[in-house]
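Q: Is it fine to ask for two folds in a single conversation?
A: Yes, each is treated on its own. Send the first.
Q: Here.
A: Result:
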Amino acid sequence: MELYSTSIYKNVFAVFCILIGVAVAIYLSPKDSYFFENFIFYWLPQAIVIAILFIARYKVPIICGAALILSTYLVCFYLWIFSKPHPESMAWLGYVFSFPGAVIGALSSAPIAKRFEIKHSVLLGATALVFTFIGLALNQALVCETVMYCSI
């Protein structure tokens, strides 16, 4: 019975982590006639990464770690865009184009955790968070060096 209750807590925490991303997307979306379109644009890339992890049957802590860093990435990208004197709407494509790196980073976290025999839930989540971040960062650097001027 204890194993079952632990599983319930992990699932509830996963839903909480995913809802953080939804809440961030709702908060950052302009409250105008394009609210829904902006919300979808902000949250759909996160949802796709999370869906890929679900379909691949990754453990719940890995999904939690990936969801948390994706929410953080959205906030950081938003703050970066609007820190510029003239924010460009096309710069948001850099946000979308960085998600292949997030997928690769998140998917690589489970084999790495298995290789190093990481079994504790918190460490699994942290591993996913770190490797998803690395994937995002490397992909963002590639985007900034090729198709987008980032002026960092």
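Q: Second one now.
A: Result:
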Amino acid sequence: MRISLLEFDYHAEVLRNSLRILSGDEFEICVFTKASIWKKVDWQDEDQKVTLLKDGDNLQSFLHRHLNSINESELILINTAASNFKTWSEVNFTAPSLLRIHNGNANFNTLSNSYRPIWSPFFICKDFSHFLRKIVFKRDDYFQKRFVKKIDHFAFPNDLMRDFAVEKFQLEAKRSWALPFSFWEKKLAQKKPDPQKIQISIIGKIDQRNRDYNQVVKACLLIGPILEALNIELELCLLGKAQGSYANTIIKAFKSISTDYFKVKYYPNFVPQIEFETKIQNTDFLIIPTRIDTRFTIYKEWYGSTKISGSVNDVIHYHRFALIEGKYPVPSNINQAFSPYHGPQDLADQIVQQIQSRAYAKLDFPKILADYQIENVRQQYLSSFKEICL
């Protein structure tokens, strides 16, 4: 099955994952992407035919120049469409088209229903600039909706998000597919529990727009005396860049409650990959303090419903149990890898419970995450693509 795989925005990691999933003998992949994105993908396999848009070149001219080749495929998979909507809306795809949905409201909801102002000087100025540049002059909202109407099928990260979109945005179920871009390939060794030490990690940049670290600070303050009573040292590892006023405030708060039994590890700059992998291997379990309400440009999005959290993908990839914000809707087929918490006291209680029981170390991740084993994901893509192309 010949697939044209298109990516001209920024999702290099998703493009890499898509290539890995589609690397079986069943697929012939033709990649169309930017040179800068392809460099980040760092793909070593030469089986794919790759056509690159040089940085600074015109996307409209590029697409029209290669349109015949793209349309010769049995399916066109658009990995991301987050800009150049006028260009996208004018391209005449004749092969079936499948668009990956990263932000449901931005793609399907009206601007009046999904824009909620944030009353701060920073966001007011930012929103005004966006409205002026993108909505008034480029008419992005109009052309984006026009482009989406031309798409034949839509791909969502999981069943839960697909079902939400079908109900919320009145999409046709037969045109909506659950096609994850997360997977695992081999069973990962779990860290052997240390009776005197434990490491908990939070993955991602310290950013108040999509994570609530204040609840974690309060929970860690509550467990301080318990750690001392149990004679257990806990290291909280913040695996993401800690820059900016909010990050500085959070680091200061964690430092203020540090003791011989509770310490925080953080990184002022980008975490080197070797260091990141080492810390993940030494992690007992994760905390995912996701804020449900978030934004994509000026559109309000909801983590777990219209937008997936990257930390959920980390659980799948690294086989680590996670305590997750209780309002995040976890798909039922992987919910054993998560435990929802509701507020700082509940988070503190669950951290202590995991420390005492070591229940996280007894989980059978290959069984719990079986649907995300790469061969199963590949078969899911293959069967879905066959149905689309019938």
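Q: Anything structural to flag on that second result?
A: Two points. The mean pLDDT is 94. The CA atoms of residues 315 and 321 lie 7 Å apart.
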